[in-house]
Fold:
Amino acid sequence: MSGAKRRTPAPFGRRLGAVETNRAVGAYRVLEVADPGGPTPRPGQFYMLAAGERWGGGEAERPFLPRAFSFLRAGEGGLEFLLEDVGPGTHRLAELQPGDGLWLTGPLGIGFARPEDGRAPVLVGGGIGIVPLAGWQDEVGGPALLGFRSAPHAEAAALLADADVATDDGSVGHRGPVTDLLAEALDAEPGAAVYACGPPAMLEVVRALCADRGVPAQLAMESGMACGFGACFGCVVPTREGYVRLCLDGPVLDAADLDTALVSGAGH
Structure:
């Protein structure tokens, strides 16, 4: 699938959506936001988000830049985002209530491409990196191998179907990294096509496992994104063909195109 078919162009400027629900899913929050005038995004694309009010500028507030978030799912006139309250920006988003405004810029970037040659999709997510896989699984199916830190985080596995879970502490499912499950899955299904998103170390192991077995893989990656339009050059990453801007040429990249040093410096 060409890059054009994997990208839904973003409307010019940002638009203000209204939060419809804010619900807890274990250690995470799911925000459902109305976006009746927005286009339907492709799985793997992302948005730049900022709270409509109290997003920096006040006496006791930091001047936040918008935050880049993959969307969880897109429905009729609405979007879902999964986030974890881990800092000032995500804390402000996590406390939004129904009726509050949320600035949306997007969809941005290039999403996933369908598997070729009849390969079977296998989805691999780590922590908040499960987000872009939910909508993709709705489209192409396939099992989901999901890794989390603990049982409260692992509750988010319910957001995907046919999920096999690993946790760092062994409180749910396999004790150890989710890439242990991937190695077993690839040994059982050599005709797989892997789609992955997660922290840097996980992505590097995914890349190496797939490279060793000749299995194609697409990695949804993230770097520091300040604008989302390629103007700031804050999200450049090296590939075998030179540097690319993830917000324009990604965030989904073919693992075979990556410089191996890249994955150790990227995350989601």
About this structure: The longest helix spans residues 200-213.
